Amino acid sequence: MGERILLIAKDAEARIRAHGVETYPHECCGALLGKDDGTAISTGDQPVREVWSLFPLVNRRDDSPRNRFSVTSEDVLAAEKAAKEQGLEVVGWYHSHPDHPARPSEYDRDHAWPWYSYIIVSVAEGKPELMTSWRLNDDRASYETESIQIHPSEAEMEALRTEIDRKRAGA
Amino acid sequence: MAVKVMIPTPLRVYAAKKDSVDVSARTVGEALGGLTTAYSELRKHLFTEEGKLRSFVNVYVNDEDIRYLAKENTPTKDGDVVSIVPSIAGGCCL
């Protein structure tokens, strides 16, 4: 098994960066809505998780918004409802690291759930820089990075999916 | 008392991919205990090493947050739905 792949629509990727700029020097946060149900596109033996859209949220950590973010359980339920309405599910979360590298901190790892993809965008002096994604391992002590791959639009992702479905049906 | 425990998406992989598990329990604590006895891999994601519910694990009985009830001693009755709902936190540095 190679590195996991997170396929993200270009619009969604751009919105994460824009959100990080908008809230700088505070952390932004939001949900990643997509698919990871076996219908996502696969490459070889490696299933691919897809992010199709976002559910931007308000950072609830107004006591320490420069280095912390928090999403309440009510916000999580709202994100899940929004995902369901689009035929998607919440596959992960994004947040920004203002003036810090796009690397999960110990605090990030301590508070992470397994399975979810966690995207971090670094925003240095108000400008978006590196974006990374990671997932917590079963042991809760370590994590694995995911390779973020961008597709030009949701329409193109849909076309790609249709093409793969057609090939599978013909096989 | 037959209680349905709803498993959040990120933990289903540790519960044979089920979205809910039926357990017999008189309290929320017993329901979570029954769940983690059946699926022991869930334990470390729900509880700290000291056996306390992790801060980002929220539990509801029907639609009521147990923090505003009797926490893990909240009684459950036949047909109740106990939902485990994540909250999400993180941040760039210490």
Instruction: Briefly note the CATH topology name of chain A.
Output: Cytidine Deaminase, domain 2
Mean pLDDT of chain A: 90
Question: What strand order characterises the main sheet of chain B?
Answer: 2-1-5-3-4
Q: What percent strand of chain B? A: 25-35%
Whole-angstrom Rg of chain A: 16 Å
Write a brief caption for the model.
The complex is a heterodimer of chains A (171) and B (94). Chain A has 171 residues and is of the alpha/beta class. Chain A has four helices and nine strands.
Structural notes for this entry:
The complex is a heterodimer of chains A (171) and B (94). In chain A, 29% of the residues lie in helices and 39% in strands. By secondary structure, chain A is an alpha/beta fold. Chain A has a 7-stranded mixed beta barrel with strand order 1-4-2-6-7-8-9. Chain A is globular. By secondary structure, chain B is an alpha+beta fold. Chain B is 16% helix and 28% strand. Chain B has a 5-stranded mixed β-sheet with strand order 2-1-5-3-4, covered by helices on one side. The longest helix of chain B has 11 residues, at 28-38. Chain A binds chain B through residues 27, 29, 61, 64, 67-73, 75-77, 89-90, 93, 95, 97-98, 100, 104-108, 111-116, 118, 138, 140, and chain B through 8-14, 41, 44-45, 55-56, 58, 65, 85-94.
